[in-house]
Amino acid sequence: MEKPKISSFKGFHVYIHFPFCVSKCIYCDFISFKFQKPLYKKYFDYLKREIDLFLEKFPDNSEKRISTLYLGGGTPSLIEEDLLSSLLSFLRSRFDLRTLSEFTIEANPESIEKTKFEAFKALGVNRVSIGVQSFNDETLRILGRIHDSKTAIEKIELLREIGFSNINLDLIFSLPNETFDMQVRSLKSAIQLNPEHVSYYALMVERGTLLNRMKSKFKFVDEKIWLKEFEYGKRLLEDAGFIHYEISNYAKKSYECLHNISYWKSYPYLGFGISAGGFYNGIRYVNVKSFEKYFEKIDKGVLPYSFKKRLPVDIAKGEFIMMGLRLLEGIGFDEYYYKFGGFITEDFKNEISKLKELKLIKVNNKNIALTKKGVQYANIVFREFI
Ligand SMILES: C[S@@+](CC[C@H](N)C(=O)[O-])C[C@H]1O[C@@H](n2cnc3c(N)ncnc32)[C@H](O)[C@@H]1O
Ligand code: SF4
User: What DSSP designation does 67 have?
Assistant: First the structure.
């Protein structure tokens, strides 16, 4: 087979973690702490210092283009305009932002405000990802959310008035005490608002969360209804013109999240801030998860890693496949060849043949992808490549 040509580096995908929330939702395992003003200002100073420490490793004339920027959390919609403005000026002085094609901010409905989001738009934010979770008020209350469905609808409409034309809504299914009908109503409310993108996640009951400790108090759907919610949700979204492009993600044509695609395609990305992770030049890193350690390391002039490692090639191949298979288009043989100089069908001959027999993956002459059953049972597939 002739070596295929694949386009090269188009710029970094940068993630910045904002680890503050007004209150903690019972299911949430992301790193976030109670919002406190002095601490959050200090955190921004340290973020800049972390970025400078990172850039010290790069020669001055190296390419430092950014193609996507993602401000995640936590609740980044709590950030004040001037602080975001100062962070952006800083980034602009260190990176080339002229190539920035997507700038996402995660937002919780209650902290979306007119003046602030007008300022965010003027600063270049062109995608807002809103954590709606459910349009059922009783479910929102159980989850510990501090917004209700009416606020979510009003704030989405406000973002439209401001002029945002790329909006994602995060929804979760198989939620505590929710029946199939309640879930369907919730999804239909989301579709009616005509977002460009919907993330439709299955609830994960994570260890260490309040939900895990309280789970016996709630009623959860069984596997049969879980599958029905997944499949019917998919049908409703597809009928409304969304393309199912990743296990949990649906987008109108050309509105796929470019930033998240960088994770699934194993493109180079950089993460800054507490608990953020990055992957570049074959190196994977994850930052520490507490302010104390984060500040301490940066004060010592070292990057705040809790983990940093050049991935051994076998692990890198496994991760590449696990991430790549999340995309419904699957993994092109050429992409694998370009990355590892070998053939996926040879390197993983046994795994592929087993998964084909189980009807979890399909292989043609160009690529390998999950089947419909494989999308539902993706964890069984991924286990083969760990
Ligand atoms: C980084 S979180 C935070 C977004 C934002 N702070 C919010 O809550 O509105 C991004 C999304 O992950 C999803 N998520 C978080 N924890 C989850 C869980 N345990 N199971 C399924 N989805 C979860 C939620 O839909 C959430 O909006
Ligand atoms: S789900 Fe969002 S708002 Fe709730 S605790 Fe997690 S990050 Fe904060």
Answer: E
